Amino acid sequence: MSPRVLHVSQPGDGGVAAVVAQLARDQVERGLEVLVAGPSKAALRPAVHAAGARFTAWDAKRSPGPGTLREARSLARVIAAEDPDLVHLHSSKAGLAGRLALRGRRPTLFQPHSWSFEALRGPLRGAAAVWERRAAAWTDAIVCVSETERLHGRAAGIDGRYVVVPNGVDLGAFARAGAEERAVARSRLELADGPLAVCVGRLCRQKGQDVLLEAWPAVRDRMPDARLVLVGDGPTELELRAAAGEGVDLVGTRDDIPDWLAAADVVVAPSRWEGMSLTLLEAMATARSVVATDVAGAREALGDEAGAVVPVESVTELVDAVVERLRNPVLAADEGRAGRRRAEQFHDMRTANDHIVALYGEILGGAPGRAASAETAAFHPTP
Question: Cα separation of 321 and 309, whole Å?
Fold first, then answer.
């Protein structure tokens, strides 16, 4: 019989939800029995149904709090009712509630999608790292989406078996776009000609759009006709709209992301922390030059030839990198072509899916017991 896999995810939208949905689709196509538990009123639910998997509501808040034990008990009931052979926990809240519910009684994978302690400050940061060290004993494998994410976990003292499976991108959905495709995309989106930077992502502190807006007046001082488009919505939308000045548009959540990437001259990813940004990979697949901050996964994905990596929250260096690529379309085109090559070589979604299913088989086929402390062979590109 095919294994029964339960994916658990909180959040229910954004990059994490996109990864969960594409894993569900792939695993259903392979004949696995797939169930996804997540927020009932989020984009994940219809995406899971479209993938042909089953969905069950698990309504948990994004951050830990007084309701965490109740959320863990609720998830425990889902697990008991569905009786999965393996549970794959995505992001910090599912990792917290799921491992409290399971405590090592079933094969368990935890995929941080960036460590929880990297989003925290002060005592909470230390407490989150302490939890991750303890919870690793209830985890058969910790799946990191970049080598840097693995190194950050090791540096925080989190022992366990790590497997690095870089995020993948659908190379067909995000196709290589040249000058002609850029013109067609701009026509569809009713965008004028001229230098254009695009930033796609949830509007929140993590994604750093506030830093990009702080930088934009200096970009406009050097390139008065440059424009910036922010694609997405989220908790900081109102303050970002208030801060947006001349040459900035916020267009909200869109279902035509490939067009926005194709329309861009440069894609900016100004995050404060990541595991490995999906938007960055989608931009690379579209053959767009990328300016990204030095967060986990950025240097691994871009290498030395597909864009620029600047320090987190460095307004001056962000301005310089964006302006250089808007002024020099030959450089931007060369970097875009290099990015597409790297996406094809290292970040094909099909390869990432293969590695995840192979890991399931290894864990389910092995002797019972918790995770070994030794490293496993990692599936990741050399930067």
Answer: 8
